[in-house]
Amino acid sequence: SFHRYGPSDDGNGVFFPGTGSASCVGVGPGRWYSLNVPLHEGLTDGQHVELFKEIIQRVVMTYAPNAIVLQCGADSIARDKIGDWNLSTRAHGNA
Question: Is 0.70 surpassed by the pTM of this model?
Answer without folding.
Answer: yes
